[in-house]
Amino acid sequence: MTILVTGATGNVGRQVVEHLVKRGADVRALVRDPSKADFPAGVSVVQADFLDVDSLRSAMSGVSTLFLLSAVAPDEFTQALIALNVARSAGIERIVYLSVIHADVYVNVPHFAGKFGVERMIEQMGFKATILRPAYFIQNDLTVKDVITGYGAYPMPVGAKGLAMIDVRDIAEIAALELLRREQASEPLALERINLVGPETLTGADIAAIWSDVLARPIAYGGDNTEGFEQNLKQFMPAWMAYDMRLMGERFLTDGMLPETGDVERLTKLLGRPLRSYRAFASETVASA
């Protein structure tokens, strides 16, 4: 009984592999670049690509449970559908898919719409799956650490509605627990969705206040300018992706990323401990600088 982890060299996937190994699972890691395959002992590494069907068939042979993570890309939807079809042909029923919270709400945001399409296909194809829907990753803010510390401003377009930001480490551990739950069940378990959220919902002003406390100097919130946000992103990512992120930021401002009743309690019970907070992340970031 083998669990295949896709996106295994990324921040989430690598941690999922580590959690599974610690819990004694038989893990196979799918990688595009074997030179990045630095995994714990016992992990089987297979080189494959979602658009290389033959390599995908080989990677999924003998697999019982699949962790499906598809990166933001122009053809993300196509990649995920190919993976699902190959998985079905390989006899894989048990899946944990990393989607995104409010995928059915942020309908104009390309990578949200793509993930919602994948969710629909998982349902229509009859997979027994857990669909994980994470909110904004706390660690995304590592990309703006220098702006915060150097210019005294928090620039992400979080807005006043608030985002239930979640630590990537919590996402990975929950994903591993769900993979094991499905892998170890005597029969494939029914499909369900789980919102992955942090312990509190934070506005842009809230986050700036946390950084002000941690750094012991004023940090201002200045992130509502989504046009400027797009232009800044274009300096280090493709224009299509920067625009995608701008559209997401605009939905942050109008809709927020809000948990449903009971989400925090459910995740706390699942982990057996409190969820990691944004303040803890900020403190760790400053301490490690």
What does this structure look like?
This protein starts with a strand and ends with a helix. The protein has 11 helices and 9 strands. The chain has helices at 11-22, 53-60, 76-89, 110-124, 145-151, 168-184, 204-215, 226-233, 239-255, 263-271, 278-287; strands at 3-5, 27-31, 44-47, 65-68, 94-98, 128-134, 153-154, 192-196, 220-221. With 289 residues, it is of the alpha/beta class. The strands form 2 sheets. A 7-stranded parallel sheet has the order 3-2-1-4-5-6-8, sandwiched between helices. It has a two-stranded parallel sheet with strand order 7-9. It is globular. α8 runs antiparallel to α9. It has a domain at 3-136 and 167-197 and 259-275: Rossmann fold, CATH 3.40.50.720. The mean pLDDT is 96. α1 links the parallel β1 and β2.
Number of helices: 11
According to CATH, what is the class of the domain at 3-136 and 167-197 and 259-275? Alpha Beta
CATH architecture of the domain at 3-136 and 167-197 and 259-275: 3-Layer(aba) Sandwich
Q: What fold name goes in the CATH topology slot of the domain at 3-136 and 167-197 and 259-275?
A: Rossmann fold
Portion in helices: 40-55%
- Total strand count, please? 9
Query: How many strands, what sense, and barrel or not for the largest sheet?
Result: 7 strands, parallel
Element pattern in H and E? EHEEHEHEHEHEHEHEHHHH
Distance N terminus to C terminus? 42 Å
Q: What is Rg?
A: 19 Å
- Give the strand order, joined by hyphens, for the main sheet: 3-2-1-4-5-6-8
What's the CATH H-level superfamily name of the domain at 3-136 and 167-197 and 259-275?
NAD(P)-binding Rossmann-like Domain
Domain NmrA-like: 2-248
InterPro entries: Ergot_Alk_Oxidoreductase, NAD(P)-bd_dom_sf, NmrA-like
